[in-house]
Amino acid sequence: MPTCLEVARAEYPLRHGNHKLTPLHGRSLIPALEGRTIEREALFWEHEGNRAVRVGKWKLVAKGKKEKWELYDMENDRTELHALAGEHPQRVREMARLWQRWAEQSNVLPLR
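^ thats the sequence. predicted structure below, dont judge the formating
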């Protein structure tokens, strides 16, 4: 949405009629389309109850709301074959907290 708004030179409204809108999250992809870097804290996603966060080379993923987090080093293991959560428990906790904060702000919860 931020990309579409930037291309259209439009602003995201705070309200529509009598309804307060959920604040817009994300960043425009225009810099990437122009060959520049997009600065960001992390990438977050949720799909059908599965969840993930990517911070730099690290990717934290979990299948469904009850499965444990798995941690991968995407620079050295792009196919996600070697889970590293047991070797980096602090990183898992920190990234899981980031995901939780994003999920609460983005109305992702409760997971279904």
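Strands lie at 15-16, 19-20, 43-47, 50-55, 58-62, 70-73.
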